[in-house]
Amino acid sequence: MIFYLSSMKINILYKMKKIFSLLLLLLIVVAASYSCSNQPRRSRKPVSNISILPAARNYIYGTTVAVKVETKLRNGEIDNIKLYLNGNLLEESKSLDFTVDGIKLDKLGNNNFHVIATKTDNVSNTRTSPFTVLSDLEPKKFTYTTIRDYPHNEGFYTQGLEFHDGYLYEGTGEHGKSGLFKVNLQTGKPVMQHLLDVKYFGEGITILNDKVYQLTYRAQKGFVYNLDDFAIIDSFTYKSKEGWGLTNDGQYLIMSNGTHELIWLDPSDYSEVKRVDVANNLGLINNLNELEYIRETIFANVYTTNMIVQIDPETGKVLSQVNMDGILNMYTNPADTIDYLNGIAYDSNSGRYLITGKWWPRIFEIELVESK
């Protein structure tokens, strides 16, 4: 009997504990619900969509387009919606849906429309729509005639080439072999040289105001030399991850970085002045390498190809393309160690073009011939 009463007592206590637990859980749920109901709703970001009209895979330089912006709100009110083209404000509106007409596409290469939609509670959201603008010109086609050829040091991994006051100036690459050389064109022999520290991989060179400027590959560092004795008088850094070709327009340094970009630097403080994308009527021209400024245009080797392109420095349009196929054929054999075409020098006094490449045995004086 005593055992039976004890069992009943335990059972009653168990049921009471279970009821208490359920009541406690219910109380927690009610309290949480009450707490949530008294908190303000989380502000949702506006969502904008950008439509370029007419839609196209690529656009042609000078084309006029319209841009439609449509924005959706989940809650709150819109304060303003700003539409930008390449960072420049085109339109500011409070309307969720608006269209901007008559936008002329006059920047070659990579472009983007960008929208920032901001609500009255300062919650904002962005949307970017990138697109590419190609040249409206079909480049002229050229080949070449070889006038004569000169000896070239086969140990020179040519990165920069320039003709100045009767001498050839050459910048070379490869760790431990990089340097700056003043060369007798007729003999191919250096008459003055400066070797870079083994940690530097030399790149493009140019001569401006009796100074020689030289880039390096991935060190993001350039050197400035006295033209007379190659004494280092300055050094500079640049933001581009890689340095490739270098030339100048009489005022600014112009460098390539292995992409489709050309970058203008102010030689007084090496600040970046501008960037221009390079394209023809078919696409962007990547792997721009050694550069030469010739009669207010820029000639550039296209790395890993036998193509030289002539570029309008204002727009980046390719004006002409020179096919250099076959120029080295009779001067080499399968056992020779040679690399790609890279090196354009121009003698402004005679109007002759001098062309070579990395580890090439010859430098060629050529004349351009327009293809039919």
Can I get a quick summary?
This protein is mainly beta and 372 residues long.
Description of the molecule:
The chain has one helix and 28 strands. The protein is mostly beta strands. The chain folds into two domains: 47-134, Immunoglobulins (Immunoglobulin-like); 140-370, YVTN repeat-like/Quinoprotein amine dehydrogenase (Methylamine Dehydrogenase, Chain H), CATH 2.130.10.10. The strands form six sheets. The protein has an eight-stranded mixed sheet with strand order 22-23-24-25-9-28-27-26, with no helix packed on it. It has a five-stranded mixed sheet with strand order 2-8-7-4-5, with no helix packed on it. The longest helix is centred in the first third of the chain and has 36 residues, at 2-37. It is elongated, with a radius of gyration of 33 Å. 30% of the residues are buried.
Strand order of the largest sheet: 22-23-24-25-9-28-27-26
Compressed to H and E, one letter per element, the order equals HEEEEEEEEEEEEEEEEEEEEEEEEEEEE
Under CATH, the topology of the largest domain can be stated as Methylamine Dehydrogenase, Chain H
How much of the sequence lies in strands comes to over 45%
Q: Characterize the biggest β-sheet.
A: 8 strands, mixed
Computed structural class:
mainly beta
Number of helices: 1
